[in-house]
Amino acid sequence: MFDSPQQHPRISKEELDYILSSTPASMAASTKRAIPWRSILTSRPMWVTIVAHWGATWGFYTLLAQSPTYFRFIHGWDLNSTGLIAGAPYILLMIFSYLLGWWCDWLQKSGKMTRTGVRKMAITMCTGVQAAFTVGLSLSGCQSGLAVFFMFMGRIVTGGIPAGTSANLVDLSPNFSSILLGICGLSANIVGAISPLIVGALTNDNQTIGQWRLVFLIAASNMMIGFIVFMVWGTADEQSWNFSPDEQQHEETVHLNEQDNQSIERIDEKGKMETRQLEC
């Protein structure tokens, strides 16, 4: 295993030339480029996506870590029952995540939705819809059946995170997506640390329906903030700092050529229509 074709000791010159000639210049140059830290750290689309991810993961971690404790103290279930309740939704979450990802790809490739529209739909699932189910859980009171239903559904819709916030960071900058995902992962880890602390502060020696309702409403509030922020300011458009100056100039040239071609096609179609009218 070698880092590049040039480093392979047994590659032939013909094979090396073929690989290099078939590799886009942007890929070949990507390893030599400086990371545009200032552009990344001041990118509004990136921070908007991270806010949405913060909200989605707050709900995810709350339901993941606190469900057994909630069902044990509020509904009086034993550890075996709560363990099953906590683990079972992840099978459905996996299925939902795959199906939603496939559907998002199909909607985008078929032209039925824009890339930004697809990402907003997926993020709606893991923030707005999850918030609604979490509010339902907070209001379920002593009704165990409703609590299980809302908890299950809240877990399942977090399957929108891969097709939503995670994919959106790759859309913003394919060349630097690993850095964006790393920053986003840091925010998720912060949530994973803060959320249990808040739950502990609210419920230690005070295991009441009212306190747990507050726990779930705080989680839902974070989700709704992420949902609203991304719906208003979110985008999946590739950012200019993803390209080097040469690549950006090339993209602009290609875009202008496409516009020129479309203009020529419209002129040709208009000329054909006028010719048909004269023939009549």
UniProtKB/TrEMBL annotation:
Gene designation: SLC17A5_5
Pfam family, one: MFS_1
Keywords recorded for this protein, A-Z: Membrane, Symport, Transmembrane, Transmembrane helix, Transport
GO CC entries: membrane
Keyword Transport: yes
Domain of life: Eukaryota
Gene Ontology molecular functions: symporter activity
Protein name, UniProt field: SLC17A5_5 protein
Parts of the chain that traverse the membrane: 46-64, 84-104, 125-152, 179-202, 214-236
Lineage summary: Eukaryota, Metazoa, Ecdysozoa, Arthropoda, Hexapoda
